């Protein structure tokens, strides 16, 4: 009973934090130095684009991953489920692929492996033994693709499991409802 109450309060706090973080999607920026650099029509376009972006997240997992706000919102959701390690690993792999220095590539690869892939890692991702061993062997000659198999497995897991739950979550449903209500309200007042 106490655990249920705690989780309810925790989810409510997270929902409020999410709405605050994404407030820019629902409100125009306050007047100030930023407002001077944009005309009113540019501000409206930016707001529409941000709102449309949040609505695009439900079209595909790729849309979500291509959006900084989408990734941040999805990450916050995964934290409520205690499963953020998959996204953090996926993001670490994306960053890793941008590395160009051979010496840094090797050290970064070992750090990522220790943090996410090895057995009993602090943020161990849910991959099968075979993929874990392939990844371990890939570290002997680290390349930008040494995590591809493990990254693909975690991406598939998120897309098939976590992403549908995210779209059905109260936080995302509330956000999209507020956006569509805000858009409808604006249309009625113009």
From TrEMBL:
Stored Pfam families: RGS
Source domain of life: Eukaryota
Record flagged with keyword Membrane: yes
Protein name: Regulator of G-protein signaling 16
PROSITE patterns for this protein: RGS
Subcellular location: Membrane
Positions of the RGS domain: 60-176
Alphabetical UniProt keywords: GTPase activation, Lipoprotein, Membrane, Palmitate, Phosphoprotein, Signal, Signal transduction inhibitor
Signal peptide feature range: 1-15
Cited InterPro entries: RGS, RGS_sf, RGS_subdom1/3, RGS_subdomain_2
GO biological process, alphabetically ordered: negative regulation of signal transduction
GO molecular function: GTPase activator activity
Any single GO CC term annotated in Swiss-Prot or TrEMBL for this entry: membrane
Task of the protein: Regulates G protein-coupled receptor signaling cascades. Inhibits signal transduction by increasing the GTPase activity of G protein alpha subunits, thereby driving them into their inactive GDP-bound form. Plays an important role in the phototransduction cascade by regulating the lifetime and effective concentration of activated transducin alpha. May regulate extra and intracellular mitogenic signals.
UniProt topology in membrane: Lipid-anchor
């Amino acid at each position: 009973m106490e655990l249920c109450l705690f989780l309810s309060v925790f989810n409510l706090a997270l929902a409020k934090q999410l709405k605050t973080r994404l407030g820019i999607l629902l409100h125009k920026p306050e007047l100030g130095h930023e407002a001077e650099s944009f005309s009113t029509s540019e501000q409206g376009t930016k707001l529409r684009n941000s709102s449309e972006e949040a609505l695009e997240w439900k079209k595909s997992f790729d849309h979500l991953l291509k959006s900084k706000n989408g990734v941040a919102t999805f990450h916050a959701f995964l934290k409520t489920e205690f499963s953020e390690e998959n996204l953090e690993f996926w993001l670490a792999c994306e960053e890793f692929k941008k590395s160009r220095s051979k010496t840094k590539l090797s050290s970064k690869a070992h750090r990522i492996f220790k943090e996410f892939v090895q057995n009993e890692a602090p943020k161990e991702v849910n991959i099968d033994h075979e993929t874990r061993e392939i990844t371990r062997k890939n570290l002997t000659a680290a390349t930008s693709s040494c995590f591809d198999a493990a990254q693909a497995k975690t991406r598939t897991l998120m897309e098939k499991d976590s992403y549908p739950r995210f779209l059905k979550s109260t936080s995302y449903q509330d956000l999209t409802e507020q956006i569509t209500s805000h858009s409808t309200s604006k249309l009625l007042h113009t």
